Amino acid sequence: MQNTKPHAALLASPGMGHLIPVLELGKRLVTNHGFNVTVFVATTDNSLSKSQLIEQTPSPNLLNVVLLPPVDVSSLITPTTGILTQLAIMMREALPKLRSAILAMKFCPTVLIVDLFGTEAMVIADEFNMLKYVFITSNAWFLALTLHMPTLDKVVEDNHVKNQEALLIPGCKSLEFDDTFEPVLDRNDQIYVEYKHMGVQMQKFDGILVNTWQDLEGTTIGALGGEKKLGRVAPVPVYPIGPLVRAVKPGPRSEVLDWLDMQPIDSVIYVSFGSGGTLSAKQTTELAYGLESSDRRFIWVVRPPIETDSAAAVFKTSHRSDDSPDFLPDGFLTRTRKMGLVVSKWAPQNEILSHPSVGGFISHCGWNSALESIVNGVPMIAWPLYAEQKMNAAMLTEDVGVAIRSKSLPTKEVVGREEIETMVRTIMDKGDARRARVKTLKSSAERALSKGGSSYNSLSHVANDSETAFKYLKAKPQGA
Ligand SMILES: O=c1ccn([C@@H]2O[C@H](COP(=O)(O)OP(=O)(O)O[C@H]3O[C@H](CO)[C@@H](O)[C@H](O)[C@H]3O)[C@@H](O)[C@H]2O)c(=O)[nH]1
């Protein structure tokens, strides 16, 4: 690699939900802003294989993608350690590997961009004199909560935690107790401390990039950048640069897409709970009966049920399986043969959502899935499972107006088949207002990303600052 243009090093934490948008950001920096990009991917023994990584990489020849040597965190976690705590620990353990990898490079990168779980890498950026940015792979509302955490910590949040009242975030939508982000609830849990620490660390960066755009979250973006800036003293600039989602890959077509080709326009509902979401056995059964009785076509990405942990499949390596889904109700596959397709564990999601036959999406509301649905003009049934997904579901349903959600999810353990049937019929209705709304947002997303659009300009700003730093460092005498 020549030292003739700014070089960005991106650090992705384990999990497809982080890796995919980080790779997409890398691609944009190369194609639109003339950067060299190296993407470092933190791994554990079972989180990702090289071949899966290559499969996810957009235009592999554009980016230099480096799998960091796996970290072993087995002695630092217990079977009950939550997924977010695990991620925070893994990323801390990966820092020496990142430092060694940067030291081994011929030219030191100009800028380091980390995701939420990589904020401790700022010491490495400082050590190597790099600009440093955080890339939030979720939305501005989640970012606002994160930045507000250190302030929240100073006032005892009795109202939210004990009285279950809404949590106030200045200038933003309040966070209802039923939609809350679990790490805020228990000061004694490690994830509370980790999450608050991330909120503190982020304020010390040169900027925060967030995967959203002005038209989608104008009020929240205003609160983050406006005069009061969430009450922060020396606010770090926030750059909405989204929606960054993968482009549909050319290449051999899968069986699923061939099946979709034979279905009428907007007739199929796609059901998936992201890269690692799982349902209980009872919920899987209710979903099966609900889909069947809705009498609508469907593609369902199923995983074997797991009773107590909805994030159980997050770090599982295998995306493909020939397992026959024997946990589905007796005769389900036979009865729905003409109406539906059941796919085991993993499907080409972006290709599916961009197919004209797909008219609805039952989603766990991981932010990438939500964005992929919006940019393809597909309305959603919001079915949050873990992490910040309940916040996303609330926002997509109540503010953005592109989704409906179950009335029973917050209170009951299982959403019943009748309610599922009704929700599916509602969202698949061609005249439903959410369908029109999501099409409007699709166009707005395209405008934001095109040359001169709000998100394009935000990323240009970051690129210009990096270019200036690059020229300055290049002109500086060695050792100065
Ligand atoms: O069968 C599948 C399942 C997933 N995907 C892709 O995998 C990504 C999944 O990302 P996302 O929808 O965001 O879900 P998670 O992997 O669960 O995402 C994690 O990261 C997100 C971004 O920070 C958070 O919003 C989520 O809560 C968190 O669980 C998307 O690009 C999907 O297209 C597929 O291609 N095929």
TrEMBL record:
Signal sequence interval, chain numbering: none
One Pfam family matching this protein: UDPGT
Sections of the chain in a coiled coil: none
Catalytic activity: an anthocyanidin + UDP-alpha-D-glucose + H(+) = an anthocyanidin 3-O-beta-D-glucoside + UDP
UniProt entry tagged with the keyword Transferase: yes
InterPro entries: UDP_glucos_trans, UDP_glycos_trans_CS
Highest taxon listed in the record's lineage: Eukaryota
This protein's name: Glycosyltransferase
Group of enzyme by EC: transferase
Keywords: Glycosyltransferase, Transferase
Gene Ontology terms, MF aspect: anthocyanidin 3-O-glucosyltransferase activity; coniferyl-alcohol glucosyltransferase activity
Family: Belongs to the UDP-glycosyltransferase family.
Pathway the protein takes part in: Pigment biosynthesis; anthocyanin biosynthesis
EC number: 2.4.1.-
